[in-house]
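Teaching note: in complex prediction, the entire set of molecules is handled at once rather than each chain in isolation. The prompt given to students was simply: 'Predict the structure of this complex.' The entities are:
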Amino acid sequence: MKPGRIIGFILGSALIYFSVGAYFSNEAAAQTDTGRIMIYVAGAFGILMVISNLFPAKTPQTMQTVIPQTPPQPSLSCPTCQKPVEVSFQHCPHCGVNLHPICPNCKKEVSVEFKVCPYCATSLKEE
Ligand SMILES: [Zn+2]
Ligand SMILES: [Zn+2]
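The expected output is the structure of the full assembly:
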């Protein structure tokens, strides 16, 4: 249990103790309508504090463990030299390969790794 939770638990218990004690006291202030409302509010707030500090919500902890499992992958890797490249790059800055080659016959964009254009079967290797 964290120190903050112990303090919250003690404060909540003190509020319950205060409201119960004021409820059964013979003081004139506690017998008025506003006095009763204040006692009820203080008692309810104390009960809420005790419960929330005894049974803390577990959602923030599970969310913290989930976030590192899915790190963002902003960059791709070059299919030729495997070094990181950005999606917007037209050529790899490391090996100079054209990352978005266009078929010389049908002018459609093809992959660097393709040997043959998948649209018109034209050979893409200039050997
Ligand atoms: Zn490269
Ligand atoms: Zn083609």
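Point out the following to students. Residues 78, 80-81, 83, 92, 94-95, 97 surround zinc ion (ligand 1) (CB under 6 Å). Residues 3-69 form one domain.
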